[in-house]
Amino acid sequence: MSIQAEQSVLYAVLTDSSRMKECDLEPHEFSDWHHQEAFSAARDIVNQGEIADLVTVCEVLEKRVPGVDFAKYLAGVLENAFCGSAFGQYVEIVHKSYRKRQALNIAQTLKTALSEGQDGDPVDTAIQQLMSLNQLGRNYDHDMKSVMAAGLRMIDEAMDADGIIGIPSGLSDLDDCMGGFHDTDLIVVGARPAMGKTAFMLNLALAAKQPVGVISAEQGHEQMGLRLMSIEGKLDSQKIRTGGFYDNEWDELRKTVNGLSDKPIRVNDEPGMKINALIRQARDWKYRYGIKALYVDYLQKIKASDSRAKRHEQVGEVAGSLKNLARELEIPVIALAQVSRECEKRPNKRPMNSDLADASEIEKEADEIMFLYRDEVYNPDTPDKGIAEIDLSKNRHGPTGLVRCVFTGKFMRFDQLAPKTFQEQYGGSA
Question: How far apart (Å, rounded) are the C-alpha atoms in residues 200 and 334?
Answer without folding.
Answer: 11
